[in-house]
Design a protein that fits this description.
It is a single chain. This protein is mainly alpha-helical. The chain has one domain (31-192). The protein is 35% helix and 4% strand. The chain contains 5 helices and 3 strands; from the N terminus they run ααβββααα. The longest helix is centred in the first third of the chain and has 18 residues, at 49-66. The radius of gyration is 17 Å and the shape is globular. Iron/sulfur cluster (SF4) binds at residues 27, 29, 96, 98-99, 114-115, 117-118, 140-143, 145, 148-149.
């Protein structure tokens, strides 16, 4: 795995997120912004950027050893991109597609949000939502929430490949492409995580 060891600036910890100014949880989303309480400012789950790099590297080293034993979705290419992102190459990870292709819906009220963390961006009722009319589609990397970041890296690569193949070839390393392909082959072997199949 050829990932630069360059340290990025790191401050106080944020939970699962890119923003590291103390007191925030789940990336850039202050606790009051959350749609639901799925975050904590506890030091147990708060990490500096440098610590995150080590955690993601440990996962990247461990997951391939167990992928034949149990099905592990976590794409290696996502871990690789997050390691790059927190090593000072912030543009190397593809931005999240939360609020663009993926949304969080509050089942009680039927309100739609870009994700569970951007609770101040109520996009309205799901049944009235016209995705084509959404104005703000910002490139968000405020957290590492795997439910959104992992598929964003996988699907985003395909979208970029169609939209701007030259830029993609220039920006993505051969290691990135190798891991992306490796993940896809593994997902195929896992029947794309069809819950009705054992393997
Ligand atoms: S849009 Fe994605 S990256 Fe941004 S806060 Fe939501 S889940 Fe995290």
């Amino acid at each position: 795995m050829s990932i630069p060891e360059e340290d990025s600036a790191s401050g106080d910890a944020a939970v699962n997120g890119g923003a590291t100014d103390g007191g925030q949880v789940s990336g850039a989303a202050p606790a009051g912004n959350l749609v639901y309480g799925a975050a904590s400012a506890s030091n147990l789950v708060s990490f500096s950027d440098a610590e995150k790099v080590q955690i993601f590297k440990a996962l990247m080293d461990t997951i391939p050893k167990f992928r034949d034993e149990i099905r592990i979705f976590t794409p290696l290419v996502s871990l690789y991109s997050l390691i790059r992102q927190y090593s000072g190459y912030s543009d190397d990870s593809l931005p999240c597609r939360g609020g663009i292709d993926f949304f969080y819906v509050d089942a009680k009220e039927g309100n739609t949000y870009p994700c569970g963390y951007r609770g101040k961006e109520n996009l309205g009722k799901l049944y009235e939502l016209d995705i084509k009319k959404l104005k703000e589609k910002r490139a968000c990397r405020d957290c590492d929430w795997e439910c959104f970041r992992d598929p964003s890296e996988q699907v985003g690569y395909l979208i970029e490949a169609v939209r701007n193949p030259v830029k993609l070839i220039r920006n993505k390393t051969s290691e990135y492409r190798r891991l992306w392909n490796q993940d896809l082959l593994y997902f195929h072997r896992c029947s794309y995580f069809d819950g009705r199949k054992a393997r």
